[in-house]
Write a structure and sequence with these properties.
- It contains seven helices and 14 strands.
- It is of the alpha+beta class and 258 residues long.
- It has two domains: 146 residues, Photosynthetic Reaction Center, Chain H, domain 2 (Alpha-Beta Complex); 92 residues, Photosynthetic Reaction Center, subunit H, domain 2 (Photosynthetic Reaction Center, Chain H, domain 2, Alpha-Beta Complex), CATH 3.90.50.10.
- Strands 1, 8, 9, 10, 11, 12, 13 and 14 form an eight-stranded mixed beta sheet that branches. Strands 2, 3, 4, 5, 6 and 7 form a six-stranded mixed beta sheet that branches.
- It is elongated and about 55 Å long.
Length: 258
């Protein structure tokens, strides 16, 4: 199921023994377009401290109550490693969090463990990983503390979108796939170029992102975008919509799609 990032923002995160805060942002890997962390503001509970949670520890969201259940206790979250919200999250920060919870990092071998299984119901036990293997992965990461290329969805929202022959609009929102937390589409507002229309752009149509200039450069021209299927908040992005979308762009696929 696809969710808008703006729609999930503000959801409460409920631990097994109480509410811990609300979702305020998402961090995604700019090489794979997959959300790796939810940024949770703990509000008055921890004096505004922010904590990171990987999507795989979340249960199914409840649109009625606007909550995500998390199978962690408030004490576990309270004692988790702190991050500095005014600087980029480093691979060392990520390693410290995984090490604290005893989870396998997503950059390790095999399926990322530490949360709900792919069916969303079964809790995956961390001991099944083997302590020695997990310790080796964490140790290797400490020795090779590289840039994980994590980017904030809140920061990218508003970036200008440039086709091969000129600007077409700006990033308005993101559509996330709940099953694997990949970013399937950027929602682009074309008001400044073509009044009254929003369109979807697949990450597969992006050429690169110019971070200093806040630009997302595409590998398609303006006419291709202009003639693409229209999108608005009432649009159901189902198989029929996606089939037309893929045919229009030459059968491209968003990350995670077969």
């Amino acid at each position: 199921m696809l969710w808008t990032a703006s729609g999930i923002k503000g959801y409460a995160i409920r631990a097994s023994d109480g509410e811990i805060g609300t979702v305020v942002d998402f961090l995604f890997a700019d090489d794979s377009w997959v959300v790796r962390w939810l940024v949770v503001d703990t509000g008055n509970w921890l004096s505004g401290r922010k904590v990171l949670l990987p999507p795989t520890v979340l249960g199914h969201p409840d649109p009625g109550t606007r909550e995500f259940p998390v199978r962690l206790t408030m004490k576990e979250i309270k004692e988790s490693p702190e991050i500095e919200s005014d600087r980029p999250v480093s691979r060392q920060d990520e390693t410290n969090i995984y090490g604290y919870y005893g989870w396998r990092p997503y950059w390790g071998d095999g399926f990322f463990m530490g949360g709900y299984g792919s069916n969303g119901d079964d809790w995956v036990g961390t001991q099944a990983l083997g302590d020695s293997q997990r310790e080796r992965e964490v140790a290797n990461t400490r020795l090779n503390d590289g840039d994980p290329h994590l980017r904030s969805i809140a920061a990218v929202t508003g970036h200008h979108i440039h086709a091969t022959d000129g600007e077409i609009g700006h990033v308005k929102d993101f559509l996330l796939e709940e099953t694997d937390w990949s970013i399937h589409y950027l929602v682009v507002d074309t008001t400044n170029w073509w009044p009254g229309k929003k369109v979807l752009i697949s990450p597969a149509s992006t050429h690169d992102i110019n971070w200093p200039d806040r630009l997302v450069n595409l590998n398609v021209d303006r006419q291709k975008v202009k003639s693409s299927p229209e999108y608005n908040e009432m649009t159901t992005v189902d198989r029929n919509y996606e089939r037309g979308f893929h045919n229009h762009y030459g059968d491209i696929r968003a990350p995670g799609q077969p």
